[in-house]
Amino acid sequence: MEVSISTSNASLAVRTLSAWLVLIVLSNITLIGCGASPATPEQTPTKIVARLTDEKITRDDFLLDFARHNYKQAAHYLEEMTLRRVMMNEAQATGISVAPQELAKYVAELKKAYGPGEFDAFLSSSGLRYADWLAEAQADLIRGKLIEINVTSKTNVTEKELSAYYEEHISEFRAEKSVHAFQILVDSKETAKQLLRLLSRGRRGFESLAKEYSIAPEAIKGGELGWVKMGELPAELQTPIFKLGKGKNSKVIETSHGFHIFRADDIRKARVLPFEEALEKVRSKVLELKADDRYDEWMLELKAKWHLQVFPEELL
Predict the structure, then answer these.
(1) Residue 67 CA to chain centroid, in angstroms?
(2) Domain 10-156+285-315 fold
């Protein structure tokens, strides 16, 4: 359960095909107390999705079969759908809305996060109309405001709770061994050997050679990879890097990317983070857990307020 909505989070826009198919099924279900009414035959004309020699398969045939074969998913989606409806009713009743400029900012940031042309490609591949996606994005932002008001702003933690969680879950705050690593990457083995000789004789510094010869992206920073943790690199690189002593250079390592030379500028041993150092991580975890509890409590309040009843058996 998310307790906040980030306008740079592209996940708000993503809807799987199955979710949208289930949504079509569920949109015809009466939601008692939520202001929804069942569709009539006049409102929803029969649509043919496939034809055989002398047989037609309608959209209703397909969606019913889909629900039967994905009942758990459909029932779960029904629960989520009804809660979204309830939240939108609550937003309308309490005057929560999203201004046009807020929505425009969200769309702009989302498109930027996707990258040039990627957002349009997403819409095209998903089959969603832009207007439908925009309406759902607006609803997501409105629900995010509701969650901020009713969950996030009402979730606080005490120092006692933080300390207790740290003591009870201390294994979560173990820091693996890490190396502050630098890299030179070239496409010639002979070049790599020449650079290694210059390093071993002390004629040139590692960062200077990286800036001049390395073809890796971090060359501009003198080859600095930053702090690398155990398990973050492929074994072919991790093993030689983590065998290095502080201030030592590796031998030439050949991979599919080229020829590497690494330097271990500094090393941090595996350890348990002290409470003060782990505090922000502890706080984040405790807030998340308490927010989950508050969210569940709030959902019960909304269900009661809006007299929500759900009938998943009627999907079949």
Answers:
(1) 27
(2) Triger factor/SurA peptide-binding fold (1.10.4030)
